[in-house]
């Protein structure tokens, strides 16, 4: 169980590296004018999203293995899973934004992306407190 939990935390951390960095690239992308920089940022976004998606699937898969393989339960896990479902929605929305930027369809400002970039920080804090403290 401890090996599965260790792998769970490793993939969670790696997933969050992408969830933190990709919106930061969006902030920069929404501010640049020249086509060469836009093209380079679009390529970075595409490669990062392609990298972080299987890692997110492994993080969630290992969490589900812990839940159903080792009999965990409780309100904390339901609340945590609800936050993770929101996080999966955030991840998929980032995928839509990657496609929008690549097609030159983005209409959001860099200020909007700065706020958008903070969302995973709040979710991470809430999930970690739930997973470690198990308050209910
Ligand atoms: C549906 C997705 C997920 C499920 C079902 C799940 C389930 C679990 C379970 C059952 C444990 C073991 C708890 C224990 O040993 O006390 C665990 C540990 C942990 N999970 Fe998840 N998890 C999921 C996603 C995540 C995500 C997205 C994060 C980070 C934001 C996360 C962070 C953690 C942490 C930090 C621990 C270690 C807690 C401890 O050792 O006390 N998990 N997870």
Overall mean confidence score, pLDDT: 96
Alpha-beta classification? mainly alpha
N- and C-termini, Cα separation: 22 Å
Indicate the proportion of strand residues. Answer: under 5%
Order of helices and strands: HHHH
Number of helices: 4
Question: How many domains, as an integer?
Answer: 1
Profile the largest sheet: none
Cα-based radius of gyration, to the nearest Å: 17 Å
Tell the overall outline: elongated
The small molecules bound here are: protoporphyrin IX containing FE
Helix content estimate: over 70%
Total strands: the figure is 0
- Low-confidence regions: none
Concise synopsis of the structure shown:
The chain has helices at residues 2-29, 35-69, 75-102, 110-133. The protein is mainly α. The protein has one domain.
Task: Itemize the secondary structure elements and their pairings.
Layout: H1 2-29, H2 35-69, H3 75-102, H4 110-133
The structure holds protoporphyrin IX containing FE.
Written account of the structure:
85% of the residues lie in helices and 0% in strands. The chain is elongated and about 55 Å long. Helix 1 (2-29) runs parallel beside helix 3, helix 1 (2-29) packs antiparallel against helix 4 and helix 3 (75-102) runs antiparallel to helix 4 (110-133). The chain is mostly helical. The chain has one domain (2-133). It starts with a helix and ends with a helix. The chain is built from 4 helices and no strands. Residues 5, 8-9, 12, 59-60, 63-64, 66-67, 72, 77, 81, 84, 87, 124, 127-128, 131-132 line the site of protoporphyrin IX containing FE.
């Amino acid at each position: 169980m401890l090996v599965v939990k260790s792998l769970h935390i490793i993939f969670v951390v790696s997933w969050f590296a992408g969830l933190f960095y990709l919106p930061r690239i969006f902030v920069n992308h929404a501010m640049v004018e020249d086509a060469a920089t836009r093209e380079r940022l679009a390529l970075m976004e595409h490669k990062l999203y392609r990298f972080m998606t299987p890692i997110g699937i492994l993080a969630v898969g290992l969490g589900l293995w812990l839940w159903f393989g080792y009999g965990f339960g409780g309100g904390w896990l339901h609340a945590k899973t609800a936050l993770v479902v929101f996080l999966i929605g955030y991840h998929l929305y980032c995928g839509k934004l990657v496609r929008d930027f690549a097609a030159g369809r983005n209409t959001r400002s860099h200020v909007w992306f700065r706020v958008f970039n903070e969302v995973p920080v709040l979710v991470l804090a809430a999930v970690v407190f739930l997973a470690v403290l198990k308050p209910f």
